User: Fold this.
Amino acid sequence: MGTLTSPLNELQHIQALSPADPAPRGRPFAVELPGGERCHVINDLYSDRVRCDHPKTEDGHSLGAALLRMAARLGRERIVVFADQGVSEGLTARDDYSVEAVIPGYYEGARDGFVVGAWLSTARQAPRDAEALIEVDKIIEARGGARPSPLSLDPTRPARLSDAPGIAGLIEQTFDRYPTPSGCPEYIAKDIASGTPYRVVEAGGEIVSCASADLDRAAKTAELTDCATRPDQRGKGHMRALLDGLMGDLKVRGYPTAFTLARATEPGINIAFSRLGFDYRGRMIRSCRIGEGLEDMNVWSRHLS
Assistant:
């Protein structure tokens, strides 16, 4: 387990990591609950938050108190919990926590998943760019919904291990900062070898667009992520085709639900998910560091059947 203190210079170093740097962005640790229960948590230095996924407890109220104490001790500004309804109700029984999004059928297609947040900084509670959010919401409402035929002339295909350098290079070119080392070929190769589905589009012998489905095997759901397209290839429908292909890959694996966290001020990726039949489920305020700052993330999901 990682240490519970993070010197300022270490925090600044981790937050400045490029996508190609293989260094971990966070440290695992555990919080103790009454009765001896232990819940595993990530000290996410990169996005300056504490994240707790699927805590194995029914005592959400005590978990909420323990996470607040730990976040204060670590110096983190935010808490994010992915949990079922029972834990969510225990967390939100406290005034500190609120539900940011609800993902229907998150757990094996049968039980909903709740994204619950708390803030230890009032500045962190405010959207990064409220005016931009309003404008993007208007664009999504006007242009989302109807699903057009993919325009891509190049078919997508599942990624191979040999594609790892091309995928990593594209992600590194697309993002100055990224919450995982996805600009590192070794990281991508290990992910592909583990069974994570990736899809790519090629043009001129080069990978020009990519996306992946990060499998949550315990919940039997997947996050569609690592979406990147070379600038000269945008507007051709590559991403819609990639995401459509990944949903097919997930259905073959028996996954009933998929979701994504899309940057809330980027209209293109939000429209792409809307047109693929995803529904808007909520917004995580200043949740994840991508590029130079902490981004507001829109939560989208859909059933795959």
Notes: The chain has a mean pLDDT of 92. The radius of gyration is 19 Å. Residues 76 and 219 are 27 Å apart (CA to CA). The longest helix spans residues 60-74.
